[in-house]
């Protein structure tokens, strides 16, 4: 039975996870503005994934205790002598409880990531005007997504069915389904982990170099400003098209009148976004945008008339355009504050006054004002101009060492003897100790941090992005919950292989974790297990090398996509100068006491 300490520790971990999830969701989301169901489902998805990360080390500790008991029983039966007594962990949780716990958590994650969240996300983006139409569009939108999973499942099923030594029953089908899901997740993990293990330490190191960070901030400011202008132009054109379609309605009795009115009201709620300068100039569509909308209506494949198909398409485009425009305004506000912060640091580093002076314009009234009042200008100067840089560089060196350790473990975990994985040696040497739980928690947490760091840095996922200060949109929250639930279970299974706690990888381990008992072993499908053992570490290593040399950014730069490569590059230097001028104009605007621009930017 579970001891009182075990219950208390489990309850403590659950409370910690609830508080961590709530604080992160509060930091990124906005429950007052967003739909309650989105906040609730995202909270559940994040909480389930964090529970896996926090509870798995306890499962590992309990497995060592059970392995000790099984070894003692085997020794007694073989030699007739009793071995030293096994020390029960103070937070021991019975296996039956852990298996039931993992079953609830894992299948809840699978339901969310494969069924509920994808349909919910597509439902929110759909342009149809009734529930049945939105559900149908959601299923069609996810058809390719589901077909990839079914293809992997079919391959695994056919392979197992052709093996005479395996009898297919419900338990085998369950393992095949889990294997297919894990295979899907492992492909993404290879992509994300190889990039994150290199880029996360490099990002922290760059943050500790104010001069380099300032150049990147100028570059980002110019890039976000140009993206905002593009989104405003697109939204203005769509709003003009909505106006033209509304004018095509013969009367209120027309069957499409209600749908046309819905689209027109959505366009009006956007403010028509006709500006061309950093979120300024909202108003009605211009004459040029209306003329362009008329040309699109006449050139459209539907003949320019008012049709249900056109309204659905325009409704969907308006939803997406409004979300992109609002997010770009929020990102521009963040880019202004970041560039101003780094510019102030750079201007104060060579000062002989030894107190922090700010440039014109107030950008840090929300976050930096409290720090300024608590520290004072003298302490603030030494912290921002000296201590902060050294602390970030030290943290980057520590993260670099952790990344090197993880890469080595990923490349050697499949070697049973001799054991070359440092994490496995460390965990095996401290069997049952509380320090082992802490080491496992830190290792799993770092793997998750590198993996999820990548998700929101890739341009491929630029539409979905976690933006701090309550500025993340609903689609990005749903997408993050979907990815967390999809990646966390196979990532934790991969970690058990790294520390040789998969009984089919480790030698001499008699017990297996309750997590492995639920998830099964990849060697049921040999073609997948062999592929994971051989190609998984090679792929991660190759992607890490490609990330180190920035091959992806260099390729995109050669194709004309704006990427920060070097300040000596002509395109990059032009964007740096543009960002510097944008910040100078914004500082002058704010110092003149003209808060209109800031107010419009803050209306996220």
UniProtKB/TrEMBL annotation:
One of its GO terms (cellular component) is membrane. It is a multi-pass membrane protein. Pfam families: LMBR1. It comes from the Eukaryota. It is found in: Membrane. Keywords: Coiled coil, Membrane, Transmembrane, Transmembrane helix. The chain crosses the membrane at residues 6-25, 37-56, 104-123, 143-161, 173-198, 390-415, 435-456, 477-501, 521-546. Residues 221-248 form a coiled coil. Belongs to the LIMR family. This is LMBR1 domain-containing protein. It comes from Macrostomum lignano.
